[in-house]
Amino acid sequence: MIEFINETTDYLKNKGFDSPEIGIILGTGLNQIVNDIDVIQEVSYNHIPNFPTASVEFHKGKLIYGSLEGKKVVVMQGRFHFYEGYSLQDVTYPVRIMEKLGIHTLLISNASGAINLNFKKGELMLIDDHINLQGNSPLAFKGVSLLGERFVDMSEPYNTNIKNKLKTIASNKNITLHSGVYTSVIGPQLETKAEYRMLKTLGTDAVGMSTVPEVIVANHLNLKVAAISVLTDECNPETLEPVNIEDIIAMAKKAEPNLITLFKALIKTL
């Protein structure tokens, strides 16, 4: 993997990806922040050596480098998922590349379902902690210790200082920002009523199919991490109705401006 990482990094540096400070991973239906970036360079995933290729139709599949709020950023416009058939090492490979390029902070967004019924669709949740129900770890492979400490401490996977900044920004801008536990499942099927009840019993506030693998690897690389979920549906097992993926994406887009406001204000302070 080290050879692959070096080859990919060299390719991107030759393309002009020069010492980004902050990495951003954009979730389902969350792409508009790219419009605020002074783009210096962008490369399609399928042109990057050793990179996976996004196979979900609403994921753009580009790595973008530019300036946002005075900081150099590298943005994943489209992410990879375990449910697409990739290994978790594939899913998290871009995080390793962003760290190798020079980032010190990783900001992550996702679309998720609200298990906590005090949270409403269209609102945002700052991830305070997580539960990994994907049945695997992106660090469970031979030679991982060559890339960082094998037994990564996860007592505080999301940076406390950044979380506090986001809470302050949200309060000042009158944006509802809940705080809670995110559980990552494999998918791609959505949950049954019984599964939603189980997730609530476990202490889940929001459920999705991403983010946790990237956060684990970011901690493996000693990056500062913050993540926000856009709550796209309410998962009440007692009143559960069929979910339309187009409706989920539409709700993500509706809530996206508040997410962009938070990320842009945060980046100014990093």
From TrEMBL:
<dbReference type="Pfam" id="PF01048">
    <property type="entry name" value="PNP_UDP_1"/>
</dbReference>
<dbReference type="GO" id="GO:0005737">
    <property type="term" value="C:cytoplasm"/>
</dbReference>
<comment type="similarity">
    <text>Belongs to the PNP/MTAP phosphorylase family.</text>
</comment>
<keyword id="KW-0328">Glycosyltransferase</keyword>
<protein>
    <recommendedName>
        <fullName>Purine nucleoside phosphorylase</fullName>
        <ecNumber>2.4.2.1</ecNumber>
    </recommendedName>
</protein>
<dbReference type="InterPro" id="IPR011268">
    <property type="entry name" value="Purine_phosphorylase"/>
</dbReference>
<comment type="pathway">
    <text>Purine metabolism; purine nucleoside salvage.</text>
</comment>
<feature type="domain" description="Nucleoside phosphorylase">
    <location>
        <begin position="22"/>
        <end position="268"/>
    </location>
</feature>
<dbReference type="GO" id="GO:0009116">
    <property type="term" value="P:nucleoside metabolic process"/>
</dbReference>
<dbReference type="GO" id="GO:0004731">
    <property type="term" value="F:purine-nucleoside phosphorylase activity"/>
</dbReference>
<comment type="function">
    <text>The purine nucleoside phosphorylases catalyze the phosphorolytic breakdown of the N-glycosidic bond in the beta-(deoxy)ribonucleoside molecules, with the formation of the corresponding free purine bases and pentose-1-phosphate.</text>
</comment>
<keyword id="KW-0808">Transferase</keyword>
<dbReference type="InterPro" id="IPR000845">
    <property type="entry name" value="Nucleoside_phosphorylase_d"/>
</dbReference>
<dbReference type="InterPro" id="IPR035994">
    <property type="entry name" value="Nucleoside_phosphorylase_sf"/>
</dbReference>
